[in-house]
């Protein structure tokens, strides 16, 4: 009964654990605290990020608990619980791209229509890369919009509509040539690294990723005095502070199209 996003995280956590053991499968009853402890030591030597690794252990522990509740395991302590995870690397704090960085990215991508399109859409919408890859151009209330994550996404609020910024209306959008969002992301990663090298700040490589566009987008809207709740209608962030009925349904309606368009237009035009 869990969302597909959670199920995928469980599958990925399981896959990484089995790859570490170099086996295709493993009975839960054979997993001991020592095996898990050794896995944690391995994760530390591999410089795994503590937040990601802790989540993996929690998901694996949840699978173990589920098996116990269903009667597959009897009187066996959960080996994934109570494990200490210390001396892992600290998570990298991502930074938003500066105007100078974005201008340089556009300059370097001038001969590449696909990457140029990606940069502009990323800056003016704050969409995740996989959302940009699958978003559909449509009309809603006579306004051109991106229909984002129509089939669901990273959060319950991921499905949303983003009006086109006036600068994007000048664009002649083309189909993505890259076979997947991952392939497109790798191409952008190489462009981003080249940009940092030319600006002589390549030592900050880990601070800047495609998600930096998203950070910048949210920061601009916050500085324009919009609330996080208002901004979440454009970013698709989870609305954790929304009131809910007893049936669990939200009673916070999406803002009007005119309000969404007003927010989008508050993103300043790029000086290129």
Explain this structure to me?
- This protein has helices spanning 4-21, 33-45, 50-69, 99-108, 113-125, 129-134, 181-198, 211-223, 228-235, 257-265, and strands spanning 136-140, 143-148, 160-163.
- It is mainly alpha-helical and 272 residues long.
- Helix 4 (99-108) packs across helix 7 (181-198).
- The protein has ten helices and three strands, in the order H-H-H-H-H-H-E-E-E-H-H-H-H.
- Strand 1 and strand 2 (143-148) form a beta hairpin.
- The model is unreliable at 240-252 (pLDDT under 50).
- The chain has a three-stranded antiparallel beta sheet.
Number of DSSP helices? Answer: 10
Q: What low-confidence regions span 5 or more consecutive residues with pLDDT below 50?
A: 240-252
Query: Quick one: how many beta strands?
Result: 3
Task: Tell me the Rg in angstroms.
Answer: 22 Å
Shape: globular
Structural class: mainly alpha
Beta-strand proportion: 5-15%
Major β-sheet profile: 3 strands, antiparallel
* Gap between N and C termini: 49 Å
Query: Quick check: average pLDDT?
Result: 89
Helix-residue proportion? 40-55%
In the sheet with the most strands, the strands line up as 1-2-3
Run of helices and strands:
HHHHHHEEEHHHH
């Amino acid at each position: 009964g869990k969302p597909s996003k959670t199920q995928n995280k469980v599958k990925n956590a399981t896959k990484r654990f089995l790859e570490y053991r170099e086996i295709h499968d493993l009975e839960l009853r054979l997993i001991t605290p020592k095996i898990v402890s050794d896995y944690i030591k391995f994760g530390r030597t591999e410089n795994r990020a503590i937040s990601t690794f802790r989540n993996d252990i929690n998901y694996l522990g949840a699978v173990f608990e589920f098996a116990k509740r269903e009667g597959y395991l009897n009187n066996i302590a959960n080996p994934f619980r109570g494990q200490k995870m210390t001396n892992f690397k600290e998570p990298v704090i991502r930074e938003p791209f500066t105007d100078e960085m974005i201008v340089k990215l556009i300059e370097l991508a001038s001969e590449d229509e696909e990457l140029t399109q990606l940069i502009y859409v990323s800056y003016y919408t704050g969409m995740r890369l996989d959302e940009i890859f699958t978003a559909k151009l449509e009309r809603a209330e006579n306004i051109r919009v991106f229909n984002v994550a129509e089939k669901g996404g990273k959060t319950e609020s991921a499905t949303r509509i983003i009006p086109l910024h006036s600068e994007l209306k000048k664009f002649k959008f083309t189909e993505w040539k890259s076979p997947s969002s991952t392939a497109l992301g790798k191409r952008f990663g190489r462009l981003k690294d080249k940009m940092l090298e030319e600006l002589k700040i390549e030592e900050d490589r880990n601070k800047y990723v495609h998600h930096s566009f998203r950070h910048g987008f949210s920061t601009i809207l916050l500085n324009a005095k919009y609330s996080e709740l208002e901004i979440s209608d454009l970013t698709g962030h989870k609305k954790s502070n929304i009131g809910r009925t007893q049936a669990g349904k939200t009673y916070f309606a999406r803002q009007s199209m005119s309000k969404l368009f007003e927010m989008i237009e508050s993103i300043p035009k790029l000086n290129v």
